[in-house]
Sequence to fold (453 residues):
Amino acid sequence: MLVDEAVISVRSGRGGNGIVSFRREKFVPKGGPAGGDGGKGGDVLLYTDDQLSTLIDFRYAPRYAAEDGWPGQSSHKTGRHGADCLIRVPVGTLVYDHETGELLADLGGPRMKLLVARGGRGGRGNVHFATPSRQAPEVAEGGEPAQQRRLRLELRLLADVGVIGFPNVGKSTLISVVSAARPKVADYPFTTLAPNLGVVSLPGVGRSFVLADMPGLIVGAHEGAGLGDRFLKHISRTRLLIHVLDAAALEGRDPVEDFDAINRELALFGEGLADIPQIVALNKVDLPDGREFGAIAAEALQARGLECHLISAATREGVDRLMEAAWAKLAQLPAAEAQAGEGEEELLIAAPPREEPLTIEVTESGAFRVCGTAAERAVARAYMQSREGLAAFHEALRRAGVLDALKQAGAVEGDTVRLGKTEFDYLEDDREPIAPRRRTAKERKQARRDRTP
Fold:
């Protein structure tokens, strides 16, 4: 089953915490700082695997996370880095940010990697804070928080030639007789529910191309009628289209009108589909009136400068000439642009997740809730086990604009401020560090009530 769309959630690894530690040596009563740095969190990367052809795995496993970095150790030892999370995707996958709709990358070639969530940096140990005037610093940094985001994956098949047309005109029969593909063939509309790929091999060395049988299109396909918008996107990667028409008019439609109707859908869908060159195949000439009606339609379409072939996919009449014409047309068209990653492995870096601005909310209990990426990063990296660490946290809040925002929001001495999972009392005297306090059971219950939307 072809699954060509999926939404997944990814989270990188959090950076490990730096630690406060001091040397302990024999005959050395007071050693210097020796706290190691935390390890870096793991990254989340997508990489293309040409053995995959569908996104069905993501329907059952939509969440992915890298490993967190390990905390630092004493004696200047750096914590272990978190393991990366590698996610395999098929060649031809488009990666979008699900929240903003922004296209992050087009993974259109093999051996391509895309960094979608960067692991947090490890926090620095107290060895980095030693100065001539502060030789025993009791302060360290916490690791950077993880990046989280939702991604929308969209697969677009890669083929040299796409076969298009109304339902039940013989597209699946055609691909089944010219390649090893075995699509479902039946005498009713919408037999084909997903694109089928086949390789056409012509006599001679290196004379082959990939042919894609697209599910039948109908009027209104660009708006989603008959799931047409899901199928039209696959056509955008083809270099040539074989437009199959029912020459025998078994459904009571005129072949030329069918040709115009499908091309209107291509133009309305956009993405340059109407500009892809086409060869017209008037199928079913083996049926009564098929050859006569096909000749009339071919004359009308040739007057527009189109190349037309009378064929019967069921009996293979004219099919070989059609494939040779498609090969000759491909040779005249510009070659497909080489995608990054076709040679050596190449790493692409997606735009980072959007940072949330600083906001201040007043809860029903009168507490001030602070939200914002910079503020949350400050509290995640804070070391609150010493007075020096609290002073550094206070300065980080000042740089992030939190203190000024609280003052403008009307906070006064003693008001409760909640920032992430940390709660502290607001102090008007900026010279005093802000100290977090332990909440009572009643306050914790009220905080949970405030967080509930």
